[in-house]
Amino acid sequence: RRRGVFPLPQTAMTPKPAGPPDGGWGWAVAAAAFAVNGLSYGLLRSLGLALPDLAEHFDRSTQDTAWVSALALAVQQAASPVGSALSTRWGARPVVMVGGVLTSLGFVFSAFAGSLLHLYLGLGVLAGSGWALVFAPALGTLSRYFSRRRVLAVGLALTGNGASSLLLAPSLQFLLDTFGWRGALLLLGAVTLHLAPCGALLRPLALPGDPPAPPRGPFAALGLGLFARRAFSVFALGTALVGGGYFVPYVHLAPHALDRGLDGYGAALVVAVAAVGDAGARLISGWLADQGWVPLSRLLLVFAALTGLGLLAVGLVPLAGSQEGCWGALLAAAGAYGLSAGSYAPLVFGVLPGLVGVGGVVQATGLVMMLMSLGGLLGPPLSGFLRDETGDFTASFLACGSFILCGSVIYMGLPGALPSCRPAPGPAPPPPESRELLPVLPAALLSSGGPQSTRDTSC
After folding, report:
1. 204-218, 396-410, 419-433: lowest mean pLDDT where?
2. Which domain holds residue 184?
3. 3-state DSSP call for residue 455?
């Protein structure tokens, strides 16, 4: 009789749900991911406004100062698999909170920099490492909370990039004019500390098919076995090429506007216009993808190609007319680029559950960030080098737009890399989430490798 007063086992009290809740606390996770995206990529996009001041203060070239943002992008993305691996072992909540503290310390350290090397270490290495711990775990956790509205939820979270750019671009220019670049970086250190409470909102969610224990060994924890799948390898190659040009406007769109004769606030307006188009397109693209009218792989190809064409348009603006008419043309080109780049962004992460299964989406997110880091490391310095050699950013944007177009060509092989679907002998129907992700592509895909993998079929 006395044993009856003891509580029931935890597993009996909180059984695993049948699938992602597709809402509920997931919207709080979406809000946290929105803020994480804004305080990482949104801040990086606006940080280009400070590069001319850094180049003047340290008397260095555009190429040298471009490495500050390029290193931050590269470290953030290259180390993203580490953030994913740590979150699979310890959970996303503590990893993101620690990453927020590291990012804030990186900005504070950089505010007292005496050379570009200090900025490379502060913003590039320390802040970049903190960003690496926040983005992939937050976005991967969000994908686990949604099924039918997954791409829309991801698109909503990724609008934090555009919304943050819209607010931070003029705000950062005001801080630079009022407090100088040192005071601006110090205040940004206080702003980025808000990543820590965002991490506290990432409540863990147990789903059927999750492994009973975290993966052991660095190879399994990083999810490197996903490259053994042909579809993911094709996707990885195309994404790496797209990354070669995708992040150049994050660093050099504002300096490009300054080169065309705009003042600081005019350049900030160009960045803001691109940010508005980016934010709105992410929501529309996410909604469109969830309708299932067009396969995600085809949407991915189309919007990647449009992003490359948008960058070409930005680069050709100096050839489009007189100096007086250049301002309006640059605004239009920046808006077109923002619309296409914003449409592309949620599709990159929304297609992952259909390629690797929901059980491997956190690891796959980190790997995608690592792949894009290759381009993020080389693209902005190459752009700065071409600017130093030619005197403007025309060749820079033309070259980087070509990288994105090459990546979109690689995506054309994605449907052929997916294995064909055959009638399943078992009575169990496939999960609805995978059918919705790649609605017309015939494929039978497995989630992350291992005996505990969940089956994810796309027919």
Report:
1. 419-433
2. 21-206
3. strand
